[in-house]
Structures are given as C-alpha cells and as structure tokens.
Amino acid sequence: MKREKEPKPIDYRNIGNLQIRLIEEEMQRSYLDYAMSVIASRALPDVRDGLKPSQRRILVAMHDLGLTHRAKHRKCAKIAGDTSGNYHPHGEQVIYPTLVHMAQDFSLRYPLVDGQGNFGSIDGDPPAQMRYTEARMTAIAEEMLADIDKETVDFQPNYDNTRSEPKVLPAKIPQLILNGSMGIAVGMATNIPPHNLSEVCDALILLCDKPEAELLEIMQFIKGPDFPTGGIIFNPDEIKNAYGLGKGRIVIRGRAEIEEKGRTQRIIISEIPFLVNKAQLVQKIAELVKERKIEGISDVRDESDRHGIRVVIELKANAYVHKILNSLYEHTPLQTIFYVNMLALTKELEPRVFTLKDLLLAYLEHRREVIVRRTSFLLKKARERLHILEGLKTALDNIDEVIEGIRNSENREAAKQFLISNFKLSSLQAEAILEMRLSALARLEREKVEEEIANKKTEIANYEKILADPSEVTKIIKEEILEIKNKYKDERRTEVRAETLQKFAAEDLIPDEEMVIVVTEKNYIKRTPLNSFRQQARGGKGVIGISTKAEDRVDEVLIASTHDDILFFSNFGRVFRTKVYEIPLGLRQAKGQALVNFINLAPEEKITAVVALDKRTLERGHYLLMASKKGIFKKTEILAFQNCKRRGLIALKLKAGDLLRWVKVTEGGDWLFAASNKGQAILFPESELRPLGRSASGVRGMKLEEGEVLVAVDTLPASLQKESDVLVITEKGYGKRTPLSMFRLQRRDGRGIKLIGLNEKTGLVADMQITTSDSDSCLITTFLGQTIRIPVANIRRLSRQARGVRLIKLEEGNKIASVAVLKKEQFLQPKGSLSTKEETKTSLAQTKKEETQTSASDSLNSKKEKTLTEKGPGFSGVKIHRYREDVIIEED
C-alpha cells in the first residue's frame, strides 16, 4: 500500500494582503485605535460646543429637516433614520436614546430637543418607541447652529463620503457649561455639572473685560452648579476646589420640609438630587422602614404630578423628625455626591481636564474664531456684491449701448465678450448682467443701485475694522452673550448654602432634645422626651407614671440632652459613662431596660447617683460635687473623669453604712445648700471644700442628729442669691417657697437653721430645690407613681417657720418622693398648656384663696380647678435635676 504524501505547509505570506504580526503588538495597536476612537468619536464632548459626536449629528440632521422650534414636530424614527443614514455610522437603536436624553428636562438643564409624547420620566420609566414619539429642536438648540452656513466651522466627509458634516458647531451658547456632560471612555471619564445661564453669561462678560480674573472673581457670578432637579448644595470650599482643579466633589441634598399635621409631623420632599431615580428613592425609604433601620415613619406616599415632585413621609406621634431626616440623608439617595471631572476634548481632539476658568476661556476663544470667520465670510460676500453692483452701474450708465449690443450678439458668449471688451467689465459682472432679462435691466433704478453700493462700502469698512481690531471682536462677543442672557435667562434652581457638611456622626442622626432619664432601684433605665409633659394646676392628682416590677421603684430622674454624656455612680464608689441617646426610648408604661446592658456592673452593685455632662461643661473644666446621705461632701475636678468608660473608674471611697446620693456640677465659686429630713438646712460657700482626688473620701458638710439624714443638696451661683427661692416639699404633699435671703451663709460642718415647720400633718421633708424664676415649673412625683407638673408661680412664698400649703392630693399610704424644677428654656410649652400670663393669673387667684380659706376648703376647691392632662410618660418616686448637670437622689 502506497504511503500518502504529506501536504506542503502553507506560506501565508503569499496569500492576498495578509500580514504577519506578533499578537502582543497587534493587540496593543488595535486597542489603542479602539481607545482613541471611543475617546475622540463617542464618549467625550468637544470643549468648544460641548457636544459628543452623536448629539452633534442629531442636531445637524434636524437642521437639515428644517425642524426649528416653530416647525411641526416630526417622528423620531425619521430623525434617527436620517441621522444614521447621513451622519452617524451606528444604528437607529443607539441614536434614539441619545435623542431622548436631549429632550428630558430632568436630565439637561436646558434641553436641546422639544419632545412630544412619552420620553421617559424621573422614575426611570422607559420612553415610547421612536415610531410613536415626535420631536423638534428647542429655541436654544437653534442657537447652537446659528451661522453654520457662513463658513464659521470646518466640515469633513461623513462616514461614507456622500456628504459633509461639521466638525464642531458654532455654538452661540456655552452648551458644555450650561448642560454639563457625562461619559465613560477608555481609561478616562468625564462628569461636568450643569450651570445657570445667567450666571455663566455674567462670568463670560467678566472674562471678556478681564481675562486675568481669578477664580474667586468668577465665583462671584457662578456660585456653583445648577442642577435641573434643583436640590441644595453645600461646602463652598469643595466647590471652589472642584472649579480650581477641574476635579472634586459636590454634596447635593434633596429639598425636604417639615410640616405640622395636628399632633404629628410629616416630611415633604419637593426636590431630589441630580440623577436620582425618584421611584427607587421612595422604594429605598420603604425598605428601610420595613427593616426597622429608620424608626418613626408610618407611611410614604408619592404625590408627584406634572406640576412637580411631592413625596410625603408621614411620621408617627412623638417621632424624632430631625433624626429621621438625617437618617434619610445618610441611608438614602436623598443626599448624594456629584464627583466632578471636567474632562473634554481640545481643538486638537486631545483629552484634557479643564478648570472652570479654562472652560470659559476655551468657549470665548471658539466664539472669537467663529465671529472672525463669519466676518470674513460676510466681507467676501459684500465685496462680491459690490463688484456686481459696480458692473450694473456701468451698464446703467450705458444702458442703450448695452441693450443694443446684447440684442445684436449671436450667442451668450458673444454678448459676454461684447460687455467685457466695450465696457471693461469683469467676467462675473458680465455674467450678472446677462443673467437679467433685458426688461429687468431697463427697469433698474440708478438711485437704488447707488444707494446699495454706498451701503456695501460701509459694510465692508465695518467688517475690515472688526478683522483689524480684536477689541471689536470682543465687543461683538459681549453683545451676543447679553442677547442670549436676555433671551433665555431664568432663576437658579439649586440653592447654594455656605454650610460645610461633614460625615454623619451618631449625634447627627439624633436631634439635640431634652430628655427625662429614669433609673429604678433595681437598676432599670429608660428615657422620655421632656416636652411629653403638660402643666397642671396646683392641687391636682397627676397620672400614673412608669410601670415597675414588684418591690421596685424609680430612684433617679434627671433632665439631659440626647447628645450629653451621663455619669453613673454606684454604691461601690465606681463611676461609669455612656451617651444619653444610647439609653432606650420608653413609653409611659414601659419599665425600661436593665442598666447592665449599658455599663459593666458587678454583682450586688447598684447605681445611687447620676449626673449629665454637656460639651460646654467638659470644656470649661468644672468640678463634680459629691454628697452622701450622712452629710459627707467631696469636690473633684471633672477632668479626672474624662477617660471614664462603660467599664468604670474609682470615684470615691465610702464608709460602711453610707451611700453617695448626690452629684452636682459646680464652677468653683458656687453656694451649696443642703437639707435634712427633719427640716434643717445649711448654706455654705463651695470654697469651704478643697479639690480632692478620685479615691479620696471627703469631709463633713453638715452635722446630723441620730436618725437624721440628708434628703436634698442643690447648688447655685452666688450672684443669684437675691432672686432665688428655696422650694421645699414634705412627704404628705405640703410645700412652699422661701426666699434664699432668709438663710444666712455659714461655714461647713454646721448644724444649720430651720427650713420648714413640721408636724404629723405635713410629715418629714421629702425634697428641696432652688428656684430662680417664677416662670419655672416643677415636676412632683410620688412613690405610688403619681406625677404632676405645676408652675412655680402657683406655690406661695412663706417664712422659714411656715408649714406650707397642699401642692398635690395623695391617696392613703402614698408619699412624696421628689420634686424637680424645670427651667422655662428646658421645655417647649405644648398646645393647651397654661401660658405665662395664665399661670401668673392662676397663681394670684390661688394665693388670695389660701389667705382666707382653711386647708379643708382649699382641698375642696382644688377639685374644681381645671386640670390639664399629661400627653406622655410620668415617673414615680424620683429626684430630678434643676440644671442639666445636676442630680438629686432620693433618700431611703
């Protein structure tokens, strides 16, 4: 069997036009060609007219079709078809989305296409098919093509060499700065924000007059981007950096307003950030509510219509509206960042990052070239017309000979030679005369021809002057810019605020709101807004406050801001620290959560004192004053507790059987007032106590008898002594105010003087507070959970020995636990509460009654007094701050 011959190897070098190359070299070369094609012919705009090739070709095709802003709309399929067939090498399905984008008023600040039909929506709805939609140019788009027929720009062959297309448009408007541009090329991308036409025109005029103007001068006119969807932009320094470098970031927020609706509030979103899908924004909000990442929203509705955006966010009662709004900014596209990268193609089609000033100057340079070329074109046309007119004038001067010679000529060429040889006319002049009918030539009026000749000579002189003097070109540029401004100016949509926004911290998502913090004996804790309480008339019964476990009761209550720090002092002499907003928000009947979830308490360790510290207090370097139930006082610099965390630090040493019961913030020169359960009180200056370290035990501040303990400690600045009163209340609900001036200043470790007259009817002293104004109010609580808030002005001023009047009705077995003085500025007076004038009137009326009636009739009349009910939680068995930093601890 014969063996088959092996085929000869093919020599590819001899096959047609095939070339042999290394694959890595060919890939590099081909990819570079592709990259340059995308960069120069698809993704990046030209700095001169601000258009990408596809956008420019669409406008040229519409210009060819005569689709001016006054013309009838034509099918988008026709426009896309002509663009594809005449100019753009890609298909209609690629051209139509670009056409749609140019028609969307939420995508372009100044749309270039006037669409008729469904062109999509801000909710991301797709446009109708191009066979259904129609379009034409907008008036401002026509300005882009103005003077294109006057040799103002260069033309190039289209993709199949059947016609020519402009390389760039004359662009009578600064399209790139007005509408911005976005595009992703190969290895680079552009993201130029839109701006307001009036501001840009003013800045252009500034640069016409002062080309060396600095960025800050330009920004006196251009405050920042002006997005089609409005919104609010912040951080002027970041805007300046973006304009000065050509790269940067700009924070955009949607416009949200808070509306009152009865007892609830709602957030109305009327503007959203640029490029945000409204439907997705609403969906995102709903998802966050469903996932409980945002609390307090009851409903989200999109009520937007053709008049504008309106997204309604209904809030629950007692919702933290500012916290919710900050959470929306943090977790939804209601706040976005526009990353600026002002990349565009130069005249030489090279990609370059432009500053704001560079963009403006590049546009002015383009307009200068357009005007010069237009002037040169008009000059050429004027000279040509003048040349023809001069020939016509020569013919009119010799009209009979001209007509006779033309009639006698054998043909057109002979007539032309006759005119040239006999009247010294040029070939063009002779052709112009021969183009006219003899009858028309005979009817020519010499005066009109001479007038037109004079006008043309004036025009030529004007054009020559413009071309000879650059300042004349600048003058024309300014005139055209002012014309554009007056024709298309509108109001800015995006507000520019001078605020500087930082990254959201925890406090940014939480409103700075006064809270009532409750701690029970069993170490449960909760917080409730202070403005949840309404005032009641004196003698009322109050309502049930916090719900507690059996054999548990409220031990501590203080008033603090959500942004404050709280220090917890325990029976072991340790101190712990946490933020107010980390404490759970509780309803009126809620018992709260165990403190062990927030601080590291040891077994058998209990919290016995609490104090709140705001930022100003920490910065000023004040002191912490500590006092025990056995009258031991200690003062320590507040900075000693600066590094205190949840794990705790040693605060002081306690003797056996004693408990730390009060912690106050002092300034070093305050007065200290202490009261015992047996009605004794002492007033001494803070200077009697020297600062001690954290581990020290303290010194005695007041001498106490057997069975006597301190029940209250308060502080006040020495300057407020004259206008201050001592508010004292007994276990059985009797109370009074006594001017502080009735108490002499003593040294510490004294026995004190009498504070109140006591008997079996009044019981022992329950609590005491210093008040400084009749506009204050007080919150009185009992061991069985009654809570009542009344104006201080309703409480009578009496002497030190007086027993006081009844402030609250108590059921059998119930006793007063605490009284808290609330400064007027610490709470908002809700609707329905007593005004200051009404409070004073009520107080005077009650005082007059008390002077003439017995305690029995006073009790009877108190039933008839109008009582305002509480709208939120109340608290039982408590001691409360007078100042934010103060704390008063209830005695066992």
What is the assigned CATH homologous superfamily of the largest domain? DNA gyrase/topoisomerase IV, subunit A, C-terminal
Rg over alpha carbons: 44 Å
The CATH class of the largest domain: Mainly Beta
Output the strand order for the largest sheet. Answer: 14-9-8-17
Which fold does the CATH topology of the largest domain refer to? Neuraminidase
How would you classify the helix and strand content by structural class?
A: alpha+beta
- What CATH architecture of the largest domain would you give? 6 Propeller
Apparent shape = elongated
**In this structure, how is the largest beta sheet organized?**
4 strands, mixed
Secondary structure: elements and pairs:
Elements: H1 23-43, H2 53-64, E1 74-75, H3 76-86, H4 92-103, E2 113-116, E3 134-137, H5 139-144, E4 155-157, E5 164-166, H6 175-179, E6 181-184, E7 189-192, H7 197-209, H8 215-218, E8 232-233, H9 236-245, E9 247-253, E10 255-261, E11 264-271, H10 278-290, E12 297-302, E13 311-315, H11 321-331, E14 335-341, E15 343-345, E16 351-353, H12 356-397, H13 399-408, H14 412-423, H15 427-435, H16 438-443, H17 446-468, H18 470-488, E17 495-496, E18 514-520, E19 524-529, E20 543-544, E21 554-561, E22 565-570, E23 574-579, E24 593-594, E25 607-613, H19 615-620, E26 623-628, E27 632-637, E28 649-650, E29 660-666, E30 670-676, E31 680-685, E32 699-700, E33 710-717, E34 725-730, E35 734-739, E36 753-754, E37 765-771, E38 777-782, E39 786-791, E40 805-806, E41 816-822, H20 836-852, H21 855-864
Parallel strand pairs: 8-17
Antiparallel strand pairs: 1-3, 2-3, 4-5, 6-7, 8-9, 9-14, 10-11, 11-13, 12-13, 15-16, 18-19, 18-21, 19-24, 20-39, 22-23, 22-25, 23-28, 26-27, 26-29, 27-32, 30-31, 30-33, 31-36, 34-35, 34-37, 35-40, 38-39, 38-41
Helix pairs in contact: 2-3, 3-4, 7-18, 12-15, 12-17, 12-18, 13-14, 14-15, 17-18
